[in-house]
Each structure stands twice: as C-alpha cells, then as structure tokens.
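Researcher: Structure for this, please.
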Amino acid sequence: MPIVLRRVHDSDLPVFFRQMNDPESLEMAAFTPKDPTDRDAFDAHWQTMRASSDVLRTILADGDVVGSAAVYGRPGEREVTYWVDRAYWGRGIATEALSALLSEVPERPLFARAAADNAGSLRVLAKCGFRPTARAVGFANARGGETEEIVLRLET
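Model: Predicted structure, token format:
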C-alpha cells in the first residue's frame, strides 16, 4: 500500500477530528487535548498550526486519509508528532510516514514524546532513529491522571 505525505487540506480536518476521538486511540496516546470532542478548540488549534511555520502533513494510504504527521515548535526544540487511524495500526504506516517526514525536515536535533507504555509508538520512533534521553511524568488528559512518558531525540 503506497504511503504518501501531502500538505493538509481543509477537507482533511473532519477526518482528523474523527480519528482523534477514537477512545482506544486516545487512551494509547495519553497526552491529548483536554476535551477532544470540542470541535471549536480543535479547529482553533489547527488554524493556529496551519498559520505557523510548522511542517504539517496528511498521511495517505492508497489515496485515503489515514492520519497526520508534523514537526512543530521552536528551533532547537522542535518535536515530531503523528496520528494514524486505529484501523491502520500494525501495517508500518506510521513508520513509513514518519520516515518520509524526517526526509523533508533536515534540521536536527528533533524530539519526540510517547507514553512509556505505548510500545507501538516507541517502536516507530526507534525504527526512525530516535533514542530515549529522559523520562518524565505529566498529566495525561485521556487517562485522567499522571502518566510516565519517554522523551526521545533524533540526532542525524
């Protein structure tokens, strides 16, 4: 299944909103918006991101919108993030999409964060060259409590 990244279109946002409201995906991601069902907050967030210098991409698999990937933040502190629809988990899509995104964005270092128990995301990040550098504990909205996270860094 060919994986392609492209710029985010307005028509992608309803798909992202639906994907980011899947209860199992939210639990796995842990660090999510306080109220993922708040469409106004979702739209405001995406409007701000799209007006920034962040690198935002839609992930397409066989032409279907299956998620998003981004590099965001201030220079020297930029992080990657990605979200893949749960129906597509376990197919290598996140790894291929993140790898493609990293090819587009040459600056290093880049950082990533994942809940310590999110084995799938940690595996994707490791395959793309990220290495754990620290552990932290933060409030995870999707879990309603403190959750350990791993901070990772990509040097080259």
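Researcher: Any notable elements?
Model: Residues 109 and 155 are 5 Å apart (CA to CA). The longest helix spans residues 39-51.
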